[in-house]
Amino acid sequence: MSRLIWPYYTCTFFRRQSQYGLQSWYRYFIPDSYASVGIWNSRLSNDIFRSISVRDHGLEILRKINSGKIVSPLDYDIFANKLDELDVMSLDFVEEVIMSYMNTQAAVDVRDSTSHAFIRGYLNFREVDRLLKLIESRSKTGIFVDFASAVLMMDVFLRKGEWNSAVAVSWELCLQEYFSLENVKPLVFATSLFSCIKSIENDSFLVKESQPEDDREIEQKLVPYVRNPNYDNFFDIKRPKLKTGYTLLHLSHVLNSRCSLFQTTPVWKSLSKHVDSFRLMMRIFGLALSEQCDKLLVEIRKVDESAIQLGGLDPTVSII
């Protein structure tokens, strides 16, 4: 792609969104009713929940684990659903319970609702950054996002302007191969795409790496063996730039194979006119940011005049 075309793509699509108020985007994306707070809180009216003290219940879980007894996934689920009785100062205690339970055999039967309850609890505590660290340490915590909790988390990060963190949440869905499912939710697609757009628009993935100190003392030790370095270019990805790129590739695949998902949405009338250009743009940026240069050159050669009409996209298409 020539030096003239690449800035055109960037300026006319990704960097054109500032003219639309950020708050109005969120109202379009995620209304306050999406969280269904009233319905979620009403579950605690059940007698099972009202008769249990979450702190005592958590201490009992730890006591059983330490004594080698079995704690059922149901008891663990009840603990997760009662977090609203605690305060933010109790999160160390909560995480002790989480880490301890994940080291038991019963952890293989943990319900999906348990992860959702923990995520809701941390969001209520306004500890979304701490929550993201727990999710990224999923092998130790067993907490995974679902599509609904992912949207709630991305919404919080987008409102705070933490674009890399919003992309990181979407990347967790990619790791679970959510975007390979047949019933991908348009709202999840839109929020994930918007996170990538804002990350690119603000160059937030350009994180400066700290330079090592030249004068630091290096200590050498003899060890029994040295583990060979391993990097699978997927589960081991840490850099925000790569997460943004690969997320865009997952999203472009959705647009390529399951356009029917969007035909019932209000934006389809505008999107359908430019879907090929839109998909190509997402793939080009995805390959560029994921540093797949060979595949990027192949895609660039496919660019023709019809694919460079992204400047004509109206604001509605940009939102989806």
TrEMBL record:
<dbReference type="Pfam" id="PF10037">
    <property type="entry name" value="MRP-S27"/>
</dbReference>
<dbReference type="InterPro" id="IPR019266">
    <property type="entry name" value="Ribosomal_mS27"/>
</dbReference>
<dbReference type="InterPro" id="IPR034913">
    <property type="entry name" value="mS27/PTCD2"/>
</dbReference>
<protein>
    <submittedName>
        <fullName>Mitochondrial 28S ribosomal protein S27</fullName>
    </submittedName>
</protein>
<dbReference type="GO" id="GO:0005739">
    <property type="term" value="C:mitochondrion"/>
</dbReference>
